[in-house]
TrEMBL record:
Name of the protein in its database record: Tryptophan synthase beta chain
UniProt family annotation: Belongs to the TrpB family.
Subunit structure, as described in the record: Tetramer of two alpha and two beta chains.
Pathway field: Amino-acid biosynthesis; L-tryptophan biosynthesis; L-tryptophan from chorismate: step 5/5
Organism per entry: candidate division MSBL1 archaeon SCGC-AAA382F02
Record function comment: The beta subunit is responsible for the synthesis of L-tryptophan from indole and L-serine.
Cofactor(s), names only, from the UniProt record: pyridoxal 5'-phosphate
Ranges of residues in domain Tryptophan synthase beta chain-like PALP: 59-382
Record field: catalytic activity: (1S,2R)-1-C-(indol-3-yl)glycerol 3-phosphate + L-serine = D-glyceraldehyde 3-phosphate + L-tryptophan + H2O
Record gene name: trpB
Gene3D superfamilies attached to this UniProt entry: 3.40.50.1100
Example of a GO cellular component annotation carried by this entry: cytoplasm
InterPro entries: Trp_synth_b_CS, Trp_synth_beta, Trp_synth_beta/beta-like, TrpB-like_PALP, TrpB-like_PALP_sf
A molecular function (GO) term: tryptophan synthase activity
EC number: 4.2.1.20
């Protein structure tokens, strides 16, 4: 009964109606192998110890939870920043890449392939490949290569091979399709290191699992500092890995979740990356997710000044949290984001990534969402060094 079998398979990895495995038959053996090995290794104490050792002694975990007093005054309640900018590499991405590189190594693979937009995931993947002794090939849209020269050079120095992708719009969503296609032909030696909580099962589950170290630490740290759980957690995102990583350990607790996506210039489908606001459920990159699409179901490219949020879809678990009302989803416009960078820099001496500044802008511009006695955690996903040129140019053009 082959039909029944394939039906059953596509029911795996569902969050409500979202997720699943909508892939070419040729990819199924690779996904199945990955699922089985991940299940086995997540019970394996050698694997867990090695992962924890790398996070701590190589990556620099635990990252601090910082009570930002002056920023708190601006918002009107107590705000803590979860400092993922201090993880080696400058963002939360290393949590996931170290986990998957180690997984690939234990599976006997010799090579990692991945795609990247802002370049941050490419850098984090190359670092993790180096740590685990694996070759790395990074697919990157040609426009993204132009936009992020310093990360391209960083990847080259770290020893990655960079393959430009110029089909379609030459941005991240095209690179993902190319990388999935490539993986089908070389999965015996190669692991596809998915960069966010997207893609076919088991990727969303694996990435969320490795990133949930963020939320586990928040829980411990906030209990120590405040003696109670936070009232709310605010996180930016596209695929949703830093947001889910922070939210996951609190899903069954009374903690409000605010997810902030890239509003771009205007809230219309040609000038935005706000897939929850402007999109609808559709199949993209192997799973059913909220995505930007036209009436014929053609995926629409997203648009925002923040390369790391320039992805048209939202991961299956995030899509489910949104659709069931467990998570509030909103957006910040590019202009608000640049202003938020400036505010954070001047009040706290921190230069956030443009992605992170979406969460900052939302918090500043929606003070009425928070009560004076609220304790909120803002997941400070990364630092802004990579965006410095873009930020300075914005304010020069303003003058
Ligand atoms: C990549 C990136 C994001 C967006 O990715 P998610 O998977 O949605 O977390 C957010 N912030 C920073 C700093 C990033 O580098």
């Amino acid at each position: 009964m082959p039909e029944e079998k394939s039906l059953k398979k596509s029911e795996k990895g569902r969050f409500g109606k979202f997720g699943g495995q909508f892939v070419n038959e040729m990819l199924m053996p690779a996904l199945l192998e990955l699922e089985e090995e991940f299940e086995r290794l997540s019970q394996d104490s050698d694997f867990q110890n090695k992962f924890e050792d790398l996070l701590r002694n190589f990556g620099g975990r635990p990252t601090p939870l910082y009570h930002a007093e002056k920023f708190s005054e601006l918002v009107g309640c107590k705000v803590y920043l979860k400092r993922e900018d201090l993880l080696y590499g400058g963002s939360h991405k290393l949590n996931n890449t170290l986990g998957q590189a180690l997984l690939a190594k234990k599976m006997g693979k010799s090579r990692l392939i991945t795609e990247t937009a802002a370049g941050m995931h490419g850098v984090a993947t190359t670092i993790a490949g180096d740590v685990c002794g694996l070759e790395v090939e990074v697919f990157m849209g040609v426009h993204d290569i132009e936009r992020q020269p310093s990360n391209v050079r960083r990847m080259e120095l770290l020893g990655a091979e960079i393959t430009p992708v110029d089909i379609g719009g030459g941005v991240l969503k095209d690179a993902v399709s190319d990388t999935l296609r490539e993986w089908a032909s070389c999965s015996d030696t190669t692991h596809y290191l998915m960069g966010s909580t997207v893609g076919p099962h088991p990727f969303p589950e694996i990435v969320a699992n490795f990133q949930s170290v963020i939320g586990e630490e928040i829980k411990k740290q906030i209990l120590e500092a405040e003696g109670k759980l936070p009232d709310a957690i605010v996180a930016c995102g596209s695929g949703g890995s830093n947001a889910l990583g922070a939210f996951k350990p609190f899903i069954n607790e009374e903690v409000r979740f605010y997810f902030v996506e890239g509003g771009g210039e205007h809230l219309d489908a040609d000038n935005s990356a706000a897939a929850f606001q402007l999109g609808s459920p559709g199949v993209i990159h192997g799973a059913l997710m909220y995505t930007l699409q036209d009436e014929d179901g053609q995926i629409k490219p997203s648009k925002t000044r923040s390369a790391g949020l320039n992805y048209p879809a939202r991961g299956p678990e995030l899509s489910h949290l949104y659709e069931t009302g467990r998570m509030n989803a909103s957006y910040a416009f590019d202009d608000e984001v640049f202003e938020a960078v400036k505010t954070m820099a001047e009040t706290e001496g921190l230069i956030p990534a443009l992605e992170t500044a979406h969460a900052i802008a939302y918090t500043l511009n929606h003070k009425d969402e928070f009560e004076e006695e609220d304790v909120i955690v803002l997941n400070y996903s990364g630092r802004g060094d990579k965006d410095l040129e873009t930020i300075l140019r914005y304010f020069e053009d303003e003058d």
